[in-house]
Amino acid sequence: MLPGLAEIADKVRRTEVSAEQLVLRSLETIKAKNSSLNAFCAVFDEAAVAEARRCDREAAAGRFRGPLHGIPVGVKDLFLTKGRRTARGSRAFRDFVPEESAPVVERVEAAGAILLGKTTTTEFGWSGSSVSELYGPTRNPWDPALTSGGSSSGSAVAVASGMVPFALGSDGGGSVRIPASFCGIFAMKGSLARIPTYPWSATEMLSHAGPITRTAADSALLFNILKGPDPRDHNALPDDGLDYLESEVDIGSLRIGFAPTLFDKPVDPEVAGAIERSIDRIAQAFGIEVAELHPGWRDPIRIFETLWVAGRGVAYGRSAADGEQAFGAGFGALVRAAQDYGLADYLDAMKDRARFAAEVHGLFEELDLLLMPTVPILPFEAELEAPAGYPGDSTVLPWTAWTPFTYPFNLTGNPAASLPVGSASSGLPIGLQVVGRRYSDHRVLAFCRALEALFPVRLAEETESVPAQARRGASQESSRNVEAQR
Prior knowledge:
The protein is an alpha/beta fold. It has one domain (5-485): Amidase signature (AS) domain (Amidase signature (AS) enzymes, Alpha-Beta Complex). 37% of the residues lie in helices and 13% in strands. The chain has an eleven-stranded mixed β-sheet with strand order 1-3-2-6-8-7-12-13-11-9-10. A two-stranded antiparallel ribbon has the order 4-5. Helix 2 runs antiparallel to helix 3, helix 7 (216-226) runs antiparallel to helix 13 and helix 9 packs across helix 11 (343-363). It starts with a helix and ends with a helix. The mean pLDDT is 94.
């Protein structure tokens, strides 16, 4: 098992490993794997090595920038990086070089991290798939023929394949949790505005920034660095004052529910089986009862679709210097669809969002944590937005057909994590989603840290490969199994 961030940082402080060694190791892995996986869309090799040498000189003098001193990081191409191109996965911004960095980038760099490069994303992060029409699809390290999930696709693959120890991602409808589940690693979106986001987004009521890591412990360390207000984000929450690495939870005292599905959506039998076995194991290991629940909520897809399409379509449609022709097919269709929404539609969606959120928050008056599958299916072909023949309720957002368990908690702002807890017969990883009450980020992370003793992380780079053909056959069977249940 590869060392965690705290262990890496300790080795740097003890001069057992240098920042330059860490960066060169990452660059070697990128050189070996990126051509087949497409995790990075830009690599700053010379600048990263030079920065690593500066970190090593500082370390030799006993000076350390912070808890991430000399550790390389990948940053999703949606985040502003000062002096570095931020194309946002779009031809419309292919020449955009910002004059400032996003708060999350500033904070990891201030803590000593070294920016290694920008990671691939879908255009403006519009989709939960890994299809980038600018850079090509990002591919799953367990089988490059399959999707990694998105839109923080490159960040997840960079971590799961060992290119970097951690990366930054964003989540507006599941975009850190989906690829974490498909790639077998950990990611959590905190409570809405726990980590500040900037620049302003037309979907600010949905969008979260956060780390993608190998483990929940690594994520807790990073949340300590990333959380807290920034004046550029008017929604940003005050720092809760908690040390997420030190936060503990008495699991025996928690009220935990398990939802095998939501909205009566079908779940692939292999996914369902792995999740149910994980629930049984959790209950047995901690001597607790996990109550099976079937929340009577209505699928909020129309609410999400209105806010996602109308907000992004209008905002980005106005900002593209080259007009609509600069967009790819998927995002271009979203921009055109946005013209069909009026102010009344948008305000109705905001009102309905409040009602749906109140229902969800009401359940958490009776529960501390809700567990469920992160994604109801296994990864499918990397070139697709959705599995072939897989129907959904949105023609504009085909990816929402197979992500019905993630976007609801963007609407409500609850902290939600994806933790790898099992695998399909093909070897493909399966994630358990852990959802907490609003503002209980520390509890979700503490619970997930406790679960990692039961479900050790299996990284793709450390696991003997299952033949790709077998995995693809299993993935296709997964789609057929789910379709048969509809």
